[in-house]
Design a protein that fits this description.
alpha/beta, TIM Barrel, Recoverin, domain 1, 3 domains, 8-stranded parallel β-barrel, 3-stranded antiparallel beta sheet, 16 helices, binds acetyl coenzyme *A, binds 3-methyl-2-oxobutanoic acid
Length: 505
């Protein structure tokens, strides 16, 4: 069965506290969602502001393949705003649980039904298709919910949606009320699940198994409080796990990781490393037993291949590392220790781990260099000049000069602060010579006071998915950041030059 993916990143996702997108940013995300292959995009809630109405209009007229929809309360002004934004598809809602009716809407059940019916009739009179949500459905008295949906269908709604507004349902209950709604309405039914108890995807799947044909989801699971059902998790679960019946979607799964990162950047919310499918660690391994297995056959410790979702594999060393994984990582840099040397290198890596430290690629290589007795691995990139200016009433600015294998490159750029400006300037250079991008940046203070030492940990990646991590410690956060990036770049360039066996990606 083909499942309809209704993406609400731009509406419920944007309701994440602290997130606001400009119309241009919303259009940019809508285009990405369309390319990803979603069936419907909830572009926004047109009545809430001028910018929101403009954004919805821009998306509605952008010629996208997905159906474009907007949210409206059971209220004429909201419906007019949706129609005026150029929509022919509106998502109407009214709460049906007693707690919402009594304490929020101050109306009884009969009034809620009347408001639902009149809003559907009005939206239809304005030429729009209607998807109707019974807000807080899962805390609504079951008999009333069933009756409510029946009347919504009789009033002319085209689709019915079951929101688990505060993530309160269990999968079993979601299935029961989905069956009720399908029977009562005879309409295509959607499910809209929140993640307050971490069950949003499980509840969504349960609703789909019980007869719903559409899932409301967001990229990275962003949304109110603990968020909504995550698009990437749901889509991959439907595609890869065993269910009673096969359910497919139109999502181009190889675009999932890129879309996740792009949305994360635009909304300003980092994806947690252990997030399923798209987190940095979703295909990352440190434990020796795991890296050993993965090197032989990745499916030993990965349920799916990272390429399927546009992600890459990453091996790391640390306290839990083993010889096979560590030697494979060193092999990428052309470093081949003897069996005895490997044991010594690993014990020093573990000693760092025992001190509670993350061990970066640069540290692994410098330990290996010391143990093998080879001079440090060649630095192709060196910092040969650098200055920044910052202050109040001035735009932070950086000048960076790098010596790359004897050739000088320089770049300048602005940024939100001196670190940002320096990293942007560096990226201009690295874009030219090595296409290295910074995928992770962490800054921590490791001693107190204004003369504190800072520690910068950085992850860099090239266009081919080669990754390297580096750490630098110093007194000046800008210089330390630049040094960490340069260390990471050196590792990537060395890896490319040596063309060692690739253990990642
Ligand atoms: C579960 C969900 O995600 S629902 C969607 C939630 N999203 C948002 O709220 C996003 C943006 N919201 C806003 O910008 C504003 O809240 C607006 C523009 C919608 C309304 O702003 P205000 O007029 O200042 O009202 P306020 O937000 O304080 O209160 C909500 C009003 O909507 C009413 N309301 C809530 N749900 C509905 C509904 N489904 N149908 C009709 N009226 C509703 C409330 O009763 C209250 O009405 P009142 O002002 O007459 O008392
Ligand atoms: C408007 C509705 C569908 C909603 O977002 C919710 O109940 O979570």
């Amino acid at each position: 069965m083909r499942i309809r993916i209704f993406d609400t990143t731009l509406r419920d996702g944007e309701q994440t506290p602290g997130v606001s997108l400009s119309p241009e940013q919303k259009l940019q995300i809508a285009r990405m969602l369309d390319e990803l292959g979603v069936d419907a995009i909830e572009a926004g809630f047109p009545v809430i502001s001028e910018g929101e109405s403009k954004a919805v209009k821009m998306i509605a007229t952008a010629g996208l393949s997905a159906d474009i929809c907007g949210l409206a309360r059971a209220d004429k002004r909201d419906i007019d705003a949706a129609a005026d934004a150029g929509l022919d598809y509106v998502h109407l809602f009214i709460a049906t649980s007693d707690i919402h009716l009594k304490h929020k809407l101050m109306m009884d059940r009969e009034e809620a039904v009347r408001r639902a019916i009149s809003s559907i009739e009005y939206a239809k009179s304005r030429g729009m298709k209607v998807e109707f949500s019974a807000e807080d459905a899962t805390r609504t008295e079951r008999g009333f919910l069933r009756d409510f949906f029946k009347q919504v269908a009789e009033a002319g709604a085209d689709r019915a949606d079951i929101p688990d507004t505060v993530g309160y349902s269990t999968p079993a209950y979601m299935a029961e009320i989905t069956r009720d709604a399908v029977e009562a309405t005879g309409l295509p039914v959607s499910v809209h699940c929140h993640n307050d108890f971490g069950l949003a995807v499980a509840n969504t799947i349960s609703g789909l198994q019980a007869g719903a044909t559409c899932a409301h989801v967001t990229i990275n699971g962003i949304g109110e409080r603990a968020g909504n059902a995550s698009l990437e998790e749901l889509v991959m679960a439907l595609q890869c796990l065993q269910f009673d019946e096969a359910r497919s979607t139109g999502i181009h799964t190889e675009k999932l990781y890129g879309t996740s990162r792009a949305v994360s950047g635009l909304v300003g919310i980092q994806v947690q490393p252990n997030k399923a499918i798209v987190g940095e660690n979703a295909f990352g391994h440190e434990s020796g037993i795991h890296t050993h297995g993965v090197l032989s056959n990745p499916l030993t410790y990965e349920p799916i291949s990272p390429e399927l979702v546009g992600h890459t594999r990453r091996l790391e060393v640390g306290k839990h590392a083993g010889l096979h994984g560590m030697n494979a990582m060193l092999g990428e840099y052309g470093v081949k220790p003897t069996a005895e040397q490997s044991k010594v290198i690993l014990s020093r890596v573990k000693a760092l781990g025992d001190q509670g430290k993350k061990v970066t690629d640069v540290e692994l290589l410098s330990i290996a260099g010391e143990v093998i007795g080879e001079p440090g691995l060649r630095r192709m990139v060196q910092l040969s000049g650098f200055s920044v200016s910052t202050g109040i009433g001035t735009m932070p600015y950086a000048f960076v000069k790098l010596n790359v294998d004897g050739k000088e490159f320089s770049a300048t750029d602005y940024g939100v602060g001196p670190v940002d400006a320096s990293l942007s300037a560096m990226q201009k250079i690295t874009g030219e010579i090595a296409e290295v991008r910074i995928r992770e940046y962490g800054l921590a203070s490791i001693s107190g006071g204004s003369n504190a030492l800072c520690e910068v940990t950085i992850g860099v990646e090239d266009a081919k998915g080669n990754k390297a991590s580096a750490r630098s410690v110093g007194e000046d956060i800008v210089t330390t950041s630049v040094q960490a990036v340069i260390d990471g770049m050196n590792r990537i360039m060395l890896k490319k030059m040596l063309g060692g066996k690739k253990t990642r990606g």
